[in-house]
# Entry
Amino acid sequence: VGIGIGVASLTTPMYVAEIATPSMRGTLVTVNGLLICFGQFSAGMVDGLFETFDENDGWRFMLGLAAIPSVLMFIGFLYLPESPRWLAMAGKSGEALDVLRTFRDTDREAQEEMVEIMDSLATDVSMEDEDIDSRSGSNVSIEMSGNVGLTGSGTKKSSFSQIFDMLSDAPTRRALFLGCGLMVLQQLSGINTVMYYAASIYEMSQFNEKTAIWLSGFTSLAQVLGVGMSIRLVERKGRRTLVLTSLFFCDTFALWIRLVILPCAYLFVTS
# Structure
């Protein structure tokens, strides 16, 4: 289950980003995150119902029903094409253009986006070529038949060489450290611990098992509201403001919960 969730968590937003139109790309990736949070909330509510009506065997249904959305997603993906970018990287440029024509309003939009994809890949090739200092050795051509060709020289470097090249470039290195730093802060804030072990945390706070399951579901609801609010505000307030605000509230409320709410809840339950 963990491996499947990990693979889907990585590939789904990547596929959505590569198949969506440029104007809808950011929105659809964000909505994907919102639906994940909503799914966690829905799962918590379903778990609460099973615990209420079948305390002994309810956990079996909790685990078994998780297969239903997985099967639906599997069947749905059987009818979806590969993403255009992956097809272009695999040397199947004609198929990539056909996919774009299917998901774009006009043939011109599909061809223009195909040029952008091939241009991006050409840049990657020229950057990896030790004998070429610019992209002068790469070109993109689209024929009337829909075949797209990329020509260029260069030997693909190993992953370690690519990582070293990224760390050697100052702007890329700063962006990499910033992105990784934000992810580290997010993990160190303990949000995953709270989301994954919410029921156990509530039980250790002296709530009974049934109440703990319901409360864990409503904890996921808070995340749904937070993501929904960020979707509405991200264009108005900016990314940096939202990140700083969210980090402030994470730290403040984490201390408040640990130092005030949980001790008060414990005294209330045991009194």
Summary: The radius of gyration is 24 Å. Confidence is low (pLDDT under 50) at residues 130-146. DSSP finds 13 helices and two strands in the chain.
